[in-house]
């Protein structure tokens, strides 16, 4: 009996030891000695799935990636193998010797811990010691390049910047996001939509690579001299080989975050030549056609017609003003309606812009519309060109004749005889038709009855007015709308007075928007930034499209310092600002 008892205890101990040996939870690092400019990878591996994983604090490192989780199931000789790994990528904060403490996890109700690992951080190194880790492989096999179509353009000449992400055949990319976007100061810019991100083949420094175009931007420089393009910075999730294969012999990959930048570029912008510059040149650069057309050339007085001043072609269409239409004073002319039909692709802007004037003749006659000239700088010939419109004659068939119409009025040379009148004061009346009112008593007269009944008639009128006032006071929505409109007019009054003066208008508009936010959100001008404004307005339950419109108006105020702005654009920005302020005040909670 005693022997049997000892054998039972021995089997129990062995079973417990075997069960304990089956669970593995350990920490592994990519290297134990690294430079302060290198990254360290640490993996926490287990052979059974667990819960409540708690990593160490990593207080002496900055976590630049992770945790990334990977699973592996394999079968060999009928035996199943399971592996689960939590991976972190660490950047040391300083030189020294540091200990990464224990991580813990619960597996089948038991708590397991890893052993602490000691790592030595040395001075910065040119290349990692030993075999490269995943981060090093990623940095060597992925590159972001900014390809500029022309680094020496003229002022207002279109250039394109295409950002390409090159990836070697040995690695892959599972996604990216913009960490820092260039602001393109001193450039008018527009992004071109990239659809699908198709993979293409190309070469990077003479080696075969795959690449995707991640961004396309068209730029028009607004200043001369050396202008710097800020870099685009991407955060990319890179897939790199681990050096291990799965049960099918395929290379196993692991993911590592990588920050890549295209680097800054310098654009040397040339001044347009002064030699041969026309006096009416307004900054148009490209290849254009110019024309003036009217909807009719014959009509009657007080009827209307439209005259269109139009420029078509390729160039900086949105960045210059059209020539003004001049007409005879006998034609009443209204403010033009500005239209833009412009498409922007990698070659720049193409399409048409026009001002359409409404003309109303007042008198009969023939009225010539003087010719207008349009000048532009032709990039192909690097010279200025001028296009002059044809003269248009408007024939007004019917209507009154103008007294000073030189084409219809004739001057009579015959003299008329002046006849004298002996009664010099004939225009003064010497008799009157006075009627006495003394015999008409006031009592029972029309005035008497009117004054007597007036108070009684005023009572129902006062009741109606009071009811209308009560209804108006009870109309919370209507009062909010009226108050919002008054606020918009109050804050935008100075901007409206400055319409037509670009600098003064946009300064006043920006000040109005800032003052409005200060009044409604209780924040100072020094605290203004787009993110904070979006957050504060979002907290007040303002709709996203209204917040987006408000931010776009602020951006237009900044952009106006570097780009030509038309009267129509200023009016549109003013109207949009008034509408947006009104909507914010209505929706604010």
Automatic annotation (TrEMBL):
UniProt superkingdom: Bacteria
Leader sequence segment: 1-21
Keywords, sorted A to Z: Membrane, Signal, Transmembrane, Transmembrane helix
Ranges annotated as spanning the membrane: 447-465
Coiled-coil stretches: none
Protein name: Protein BatD
Native organism: Winogradskyella echinorum
Native organism taxonomy: Bacteria, Pseudomonadati, Bacteroidota, Flavobacteriia, Flavobacteriales
């Amino acid at each position: 009996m005693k022997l049997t008892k000892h054998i039972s205890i021995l089997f129990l101990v062995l079973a417990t030891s075997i069960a304990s040996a089956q669970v593995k939870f350990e920490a592994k690092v990519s290297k134990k000695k690294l430079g302060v400019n290198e990254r360290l990878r640490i993996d926490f591996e287990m052979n059974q799935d667990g819960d409540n994983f708690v990593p160490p604090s990593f207080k002496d490192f900055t976590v630049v990636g992770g945790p990334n989780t990977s699973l592996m199931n394999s079968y060999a000789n009928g035996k199943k193998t399971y592996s689960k790994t939590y991976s972190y990528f660490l950047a040391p904060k300083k030189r020294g010797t540091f200990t990464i403490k224990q991580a813990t996890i619960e597996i089948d109700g038991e708590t397991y811990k890893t052993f602490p690992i000691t790592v030595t951080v040395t001075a910065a190194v040119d290349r990692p010691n030993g075999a490269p880790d995943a981060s090093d492989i990623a940095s060597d096999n992925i590159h972001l390049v900014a390809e500029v179509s022309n680094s020496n353009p003229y002022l207002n000449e279109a250039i394109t910047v295409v950002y390409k992400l090159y990836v070697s055949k040995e690695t892959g990319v599972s996604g990216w996001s913009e960490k820092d976007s260039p602001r393109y100061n001193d450039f008018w810019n527009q992004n071109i939509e990239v659809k699908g991100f198709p993979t293409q083949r190309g070469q990077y420094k003479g080696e075969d690579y795959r690449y995707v175009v991640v961004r396309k931007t068209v730029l028009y420089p607004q200043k001369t001299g050396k202008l710097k393009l800020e870099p685009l910075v991407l955060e990319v999730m890179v897939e790199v080989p681990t050096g291990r294969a799965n049960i099918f012999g395929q290379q196993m990959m692991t993911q590592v975050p990588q920050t890549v930048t295209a680097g800054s570029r310098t654009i040397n912008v040339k001044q347009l030549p002064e030699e041969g510059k026309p006096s009416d040149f307004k900054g148009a650069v490209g290849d254009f056609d110019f024309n003036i057309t009217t909807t009719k050339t014959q009509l009657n007085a007080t009827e209307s017609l439209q005259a269109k001043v139009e420029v078509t072609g390729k160039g900086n269409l949105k960045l210059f003003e059209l020539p003004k239409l001049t007409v005879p004073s006998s034609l009443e002319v209204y403010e033009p309606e500005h239209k833009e039909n412009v498409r922007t692709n990698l070659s720049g802007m193409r399409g048409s812009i026009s001002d359409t004037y409404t003309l109303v003749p007042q008198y009969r006659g023939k009225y010539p519309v003087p010719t207008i000239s349009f000048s532009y700088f032709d990039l192909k010939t690097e010279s200025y060109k001028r296009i002059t419109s044809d003269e248009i004659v408007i024939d007004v068939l019917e209507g009154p004749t103008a007294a000073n119409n030189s084409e219809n009025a004739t001057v009579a040379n015959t003299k008329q005889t002046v006849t004298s009148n002996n009664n010099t004061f004939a225009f003064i009346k010497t008799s009157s038709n006075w009627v006495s009112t003394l015999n008409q008593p006031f009592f029972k007269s029309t005035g008497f009855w009117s004054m007597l009944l007036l108070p009684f008639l005023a009572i129902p009128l006062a009741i109606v007015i009071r009811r209308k006032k009560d209804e108006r006071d009870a109309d919370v929505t209507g009062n909010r709308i009226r108050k919002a409109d008054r606020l918009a007019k109050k804050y935008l009054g100075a901007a409206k007075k400055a319409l037509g003066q670009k600098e003064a208008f946009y300064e006043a508009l920006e000040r109005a928007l800032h003052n409005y936010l200060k009044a409604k959100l209780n924040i100072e001008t020094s605290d203004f930034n787009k993110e904070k404004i979006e957050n504060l307005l979002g907290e007040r339950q303002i709709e996203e499209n209204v917040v987006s419109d408000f931010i776009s108006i602020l951006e237009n105020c900044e952009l106006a310092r570097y780009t030509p702005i038309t009267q129509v654009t200023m009016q549109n920005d003013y109207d949009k600002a008034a509408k947006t302020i009104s909507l914010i005040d209505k929706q604010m909670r």
